[in-house]
Input
Amino acid sequence: MDVFSSEPYRGNPLAVVLDAGDLTAEVMQRFANWTNLAETTFLLPPTDSGADYRVRIFTGSEEFPFAGHPTLGSAHAWLEAGGIPRQNGVVVQQCGAGLVRVKRDGGRLAFAAPPLTRSGPVAERDLTRIAAGLRLPRAALLDASWLVNGPDWIGVLLESAQLVLDIRPDYAAMADSRSA
Output
């Protein structure tokens, strides 16, 4: 799938495996690693009666309870494969984070993210590494918070949009910016 684009090879790529009910988690993980994409999803029958289908989301190395572009791409693939939602105009996707309602408006899909599973302050050692990775002085990070409902994300507040646009990250310096 090309998520976020109607033009081939312009979107955020996603592999979607339909009818994955017979696959083990180990096979799913190996397949996701083989695709070499950011995420690969596997669609299964729901275990929650309120859902239209269930999705499992894998990266090359781990399973996520939720992620944004896999939610949209999976809903689109399910609909394209002939899926018929139980509710008019809404696809209900079951994932590790619970039920996610994906609204259909013509050919467009949208959803509200599930609640955060982790939020709050970020340790100073992590902020120091993030600032180094962004090639900014530590004082440039005005605020920061964990924003987790799938992958671990840390949101940082900077002084201006231009400062964000000017960032040229040092990915090696940021590689170890996650905390348990």
Remarks:
- The helical segments are 25-35, 68-80, 124-133, 161-166, 171-174.
- The longest strand covers residues 98-105.
- The mean pLDDT is 93.
- The chain has two domains: 2-111, 118-174.
